[in-house]
Amino acid sequence: MASKTPESLDALMSQLEKLPGIGPRSAGRLAHHLLRVPASEAIALADAIRTVRERIRPCSQCRAPSESDPCAICSDETRDRSVLLVVETPRDLNAVEAAGSYGGLYFVLGARLSPLEGVDARALELGSLATRLAGDEVREVCIGTNPDLEGDGTALAIIDAVAGVPRAEPARVTRLARGLPTGGQIEYQNASVIADAFEGRRSVLDTP
Ligand SMILES: [Zn+2]
Is 22 contained in some domain? Predict the structure, then answer.
């Protein structure tokens, strides 16, 4: 039986359906919404998608999406070039930048290891990371993967990649602390958070 939906509308719906979190119903709703709004608004969306795809490329140094190469962070001479924070996604980079407490450089892996979803080490930009670490500019690689199973596996892959880079002096490898959240209360934390907090405890009084 032929579909009653016009061909072009059908095509739009199937494109929308490919977006994360969008099922057939949402795709239908969005497509009809785009038909209802003023044409200029719908075209502006299409133009924004086209522009972003034409202008944005991964930065050759950190792999973060950028309109310039190197990106604004990598070309900022005031940043500490000896520390490289390795994160899973550009969204993680944005969150750390928004916090404003880190002044070093970044490296974006672009993915996380997830054997269950078929994502293996080839999906990570580990080759580019190794290239980035050649030379002795970076003294410390700080692993900023998420504190969960996939993030832990990804951290191991990063450690392997860093260890495989031939350097005059090996880089120090650290990982962001995990444990009790600021403002949290111990009685409400689960067992793994408390276990992490013990593992990550640090000295607060130096004994002579
Ligand atoms: Zn960059």
Answer: no
